[in-house]
Design goal:
mainly alpha; Endonuclease III, domain 1; two-stranded parallel ribbon; 10 helices
Amino acid sequence: MPQPNPPLPADGLVRCPWCGTDPLYMAYHDTEWGVPLHNDHALFELLVLEGAQAGLSWLTILRRREGYRAAYAEVAGAFDAEHLARLTEADQLLLLGDERIIRNRQKVAASVGNARAFLDIQAQHGSFAAYLWRFVEGRAIQNAWQELRDAPATTPLSDAISKDLKARGMKFVGGTIMYAFMQSAGLVNDHLVRCHRHSQVAGL
C-alpha cells in the first residue's frame, strides 16, 4: 500500500523526503545538494567530509562542518589539500583530541593521505574538477526518480571512480561513498521529480 507523502513545510515547497524538517538539512538540500561543483577547494572539502561520514549520517557531518573547517584551519592553517598534505603525525594527534570533528584515527589519517593524492591528480590533470568531470563527459547525469527507493546506493560509474581513486592511494572512497559524493557534487541529479529542486538543478 503506497505511503502518504509527508505534510508540506510552512513554505509549501515539495522536497526530497530525506531532508525531513530539520532547518539545516532543508537549507543544504535547497542550496547545495546536486549543484554542480567545479571548484577544487569545495570538491576537496566535500571529499574529506564524505569520507568522515562512513558509518554515520550525512546530517551528523553537516552539523560538524563548521567545526571541521575551524579544527583543520587551526592545525593546518586552512582546510584545503595543500595544507592538509603537510600535516604531521603530531598534527593528527591534535585533531584526534578535537571534539568538533569525528575523532577516528583512520579517517583523520585518510584526510591527509587523500590530500596528497588529490594534489597528484591536480598536477596530472590541471585540476581535480577536470579529472572528476571527465567521468561524466562534463555534463551531469539527469535522473528522474519517483521515490527515494528508486535511487541506487552505488552504480558502475561510482564504482569506477572509487577504483581509480583507490589505485591512486585514497581511502574511504568506496563505491557507496563516491555515489553520495557524486550526488552532493552534482555529477548526478538525484532530486526526485516532484521535488522543487529537480528542474532547477537540471538547468544549472
